[in-house]
Amino acid sequence: MMMNNNVLCLLTNPDGSPLGAPMYLPQNAAPQHLQQIVNKLLNNEEKLPYSFYISDQELLVPLATYLHTNKLSVEKALPIVCQPQAIFRIRPINRCSAAISAHAESVLTVAFSPDGRHLASGSGDTTVRFWDITTQTPLFTCRGHDSSVLFVAWSPDGKYLVSGSESGELICWDPQTGKSLGNFMQASATKSVSSSLLPKKRGRSSRRGSENKPSNKKDNKKMKKWINSISWEPVHLNAPCRRFVSASKDTIARIWDISSKKCICLNGHTQSVTSVKWGGDGVIYTGYSFPFLVRLLYSL
């Protein structure tokens, strides 16, 4: 219904419930004007963005233009659906919410648990500590490393935490008890399988089984230099979580199985492997600090 260049409109929620009584709106009312009206109707202290729909078609122009373009004759109140838009807010961090002290030396690595309720930290004092984020209190102090802890990584299901040290040790911890589940370097029954890293040219990747020949080189199992990075196999690829890959200064990336304690050594790097990621597609990505390369490996 139109009167004196005004259009009778009924603003509704996405479920069809009205925001109020029908009202006359100027024909030149555009979406930005409707946003002001809706925020006022809902008494929003913080002005929120909305999108508007008429007959499942988004309103992007003034009402008059929309009615003319679609050749609509309004005999009754024109229903307009008001859809709240998602908001991404960025706020500056200008204060420290809490400071938790306990480590005797510098904290070198931290990682939040997948559910965000706990924190693990590794320090130059050779310990791994678990923290409760809600209460901001320590849970467990884990001892077992003989050198600085450089990297900690939670399994995607939150059931395990692996820590890597400056001496090349890897220890798996139970976050529920803080107890060690094993030092991988001390697993004497472990059999190592060496798999050559094949792409020797940039931009090339090696697929599973293509020229990779297994061997029984047990000396590759023990890392001779510090751990640079650890990454778990994504849980959607293999549940429950049991495998992770580590990168070391000794130029070798290794895949570990926490159940069997077996290790697969991925040789072929010529420089320190500074980072490693187990991708969601099953591909393992390794990075060099020099000559600034990223290599792709298919997990075995």
Automatic annotation (TrEMBL):
**Where does this polypeptide localize?**
Nucleus, Nucleolus
What residues does the NLE domain cover?
8-67
- Chain positions covered by the region annotation Disordered: 191-221
| Cleavable signal peptide | none
Say if the entry is tagged with keyword Repeat.
Answer: yes
The entry's keywords: Nucleus, Repeat, WD repeat
**Start-end of the WD repeats?**
100-141, 142-183
GO CC annotations on file: nucleolus
Thylakoid: present as a keyword of the record? Answer: no
From which domain of life does this come? Eukaryota
Enumerate the SUPFAM superfamilies for this protein.
WD40 repeat-like
What is one Gene Ontology biological process annotated in the Swiss-Prot or TrEMBL record?
Answer: ribosomal large subunit assembly
Return the Basic and acidic residues bias intervals. Answer: 208-218
The identity of this protein, by name, is NLE domain-containing protein
